[in-house]
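Re-running the complex after MR caught last week's input typo. The corrected sequence lines follow. Everything else is unchanged.
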Amino acid sequence: MLRVEDLSVAYGSVRALDGVSLEVKESGVLHGIIGPNGAGKSTLMDAITGRRKPTRGRVFVDGRDITALSVARRRRLGMSRSFQRTSIFPGLRVGEQLELVASHLGERNLAGIVETLNLAHVYGEIADRIAYGDQRRVDIALALVGRPSLMLLDEPAAGLSTAETTILFEHLAAVVRDRNVTALVVEHDVDAVFRFCDTITALDLGRVLANGAPADVRKDPRVIAAYLGTAA
Amino acid sequence: MAFLHAFSPAQFANALALASLLTILASGLALIFGLRDVMNFAHGALFMLGAYLGYTISGLFNFWAALLIVPFLLALLGVAFEYAAIRPLQKRSQMDVALVTFGLALILSQLVIKIWGTAPLAVTAPPSLAGSTDLFGQPYPTYRLFLIAVGFSVCVALAAWLNYTRSGMNVRAVSQHPTVARILGVNTDRLGLLVVCMGTGLAGFAGVLAGPYLSVDPALGGSILINCLIVVVIGGLGSIGGAIAAAVAFGLTQVFGSLLSPTLAVMAPYLLLFFVLLWRPQGFGRGRVG
Amino acid sequence: MGALQSLAADPATRPRSAKTRSASVYMTVAVGGALTVLGLLAPTAIHSPYYLGLLINAILLAISAVSIGFLAHQSGLMMFGAAAFTGSATYLYAIAITQFGWNAMAASAFTLSASTGLSAVIGALIVRARPLPFAMLTLALAQMLRSFVLITDFRPVTGGDDGLPLSFEGAFFDFSQAQLSKPEGFWPVAWLALCGVMALAWVVGRSPIGQVLRAIKVNEERMRFSGFDTYGPRVLAFALAGFMAAVAGLLTGLYTAFASPELLDFSTGGNALVSTLIGGVGTVAGPALGALLYVVGQDRFGATGDLEFLTGLGVVLVIYLFPDGVMGFIRGAVAKPGARDAEAQHGGEHAAS
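Corrected-run output:
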């Protein structure tokens, strides 16, 4: 479904990503991406979604090489993303911005998304006046509009409490299951990732440490070494 | 033969004279942008005000008095500028402040017309600098040589200030790493005030110098502003060395270009500005003084 | 759509029901239409050619201001050098008449289409620049055109620093040159043009493309990540603003029958910009109101010399205290909470952000 081949992103002499390859073969999969700070997780997101141009490597979606496509084009083809630093439309009402994107991408069941992400109570509110947690979910809702087949979520639970994170991941798991969407989730909360994700990629220093089912990744000595000092 | 004549030392000196004025102006603009992140659209109008004040004070006393008094007056204006416009708007966007400076430019222009009228004024060079000197066998206006010398001196003085004095080094530090500098105890507000006053003072200084050289009329502000902007942008925002180099290049293209092709001479700086702003807009996030 | 319908029923969450939205649209159209018709009768009420002339100057300034305000509100870009677009239109018109020998109608059509086309081309180049470089580029453009027009080689075409007087025989929409040069004669043309331009700005602002533009202004990256082309709409907005500015320039040519380098001055564009700021960019009428205030102020205070001080004070105060301009302030004070435009209510609608 998604195949990343030898992806590298360099800023001058710094290699943020160094030959990363990963593959998610099926849809309806929740795939976690973990790694310590500076591992290159966000850069990987940026490279896959087209926000950054890779210095080497290619990205395939459903067998098609999309490396040269623009961000907007990728979105229209069904690849969406949410942001680590909330990126919504502050001056607009929640409903307005969702409807704007929904009509552009031909979404017919906006109500369903609003309900799934528990945004009904803020639908008419102006986006920069709602609670932080609600704003995060608006960010995700914007990525969910238009029946994407591939969602990339960059630390969707950033700033949320453990309880809120669990709820969010339950929502995500439900979305992935019900809509048969493939979701890649970058997340710092390793517990949540191990608990909810079907498969995991662990990164460190721009390289892949391990790839596979949670149980296997958990036992991988390189992953344990990279996380020494952090609960794993 | 005429072609060779065109590339005479005299023309070369003309280019340097123009560059001198621009250097002094551009340095002030670069300093203010580099430190305060303010693109001062009123810089041309300040220059013009300096020229007009220079005319009046030269008439009342003499040229040298003007050269001393006018920059001081404009530095005072800089204080008002800093406290009334820049400090209160520090938290607002670059554009908001730019708009205010633009508005100020308009008032200054209208003020000038109100006080001095619209007819061009003639400022004569002081007797000691009037007349010509022998330049490579040709007579050349002494005043322009003076202009070149002053421009050069100002550059040297600025460079020395930036590199060898405490306040100068602080200015460089703050423009490059504002937060760090503040943590290290640099009083950025006081420094900002100093830099703004220097900038406006320099503009006034350049204005007085320009009196005997350029035609003093109300359109002076607008045309010099854009040339100044071009020089600062092409030289790399905040970089004084770059501004100097760009000013010299500008002077050369203008003088020699207008001999070869007036159209090209007019277009070239603008085309270069478009190119730099569209394809290499670095430095608009933060200028760097150096 | 059941969940959304129940959302819509709840007054607290309803953005704005279709009913209230179309009611306010009808109101605006009705009021606008009435004002347009009433305005045409102005010469019967105002007999003094002096005041009528003053109002015409206000209209010419207002059209430029509306174009600046339109671009600022929809795209967040400030045209410091609006004079480039108004002045060049006047010159194009003058050149079409004097050089090509066309009649007024053809020259006008040429002016508007050529100006808009050029605006589109320029927009394609500069619309992606950040706000400050954009402002500098428009200023540079104005100054470049001014220098261009003064080049001695081009004197025969542009008239150099003397400017380019023009005269045409025949008629412009049944108006002869003589009629157009007088305030009473020119009034209908000016007034209808102003109403037309304001209507255009209003219609585009309310249309889907206006919504898209303002969303791009707020978060361009997220719009791309939501599948929108963010470049095309902005070029379109710029071309429209250029068109409106061209209307102002064309009218200047029709009225004064003269094209001069002063039209491309720093201060010409500056006056329009100041009017826009004073009136506020959040509404279509704001810039027009600002222009009226500016021209009246010039008339009242110009003699005593207080105008410069007031203008300066006005600009600084407005930017400092009223990010939404005077019009935005009035709207905020008068309108009821539910009916306000979301962006104005947000108050983050800075003049230039």
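None of the earlier attempt is carried over here. The beta strands of chain B are 132-135, 138-141. Residues 58 and 65 of chain B are 7 Å apart (CA to CA).
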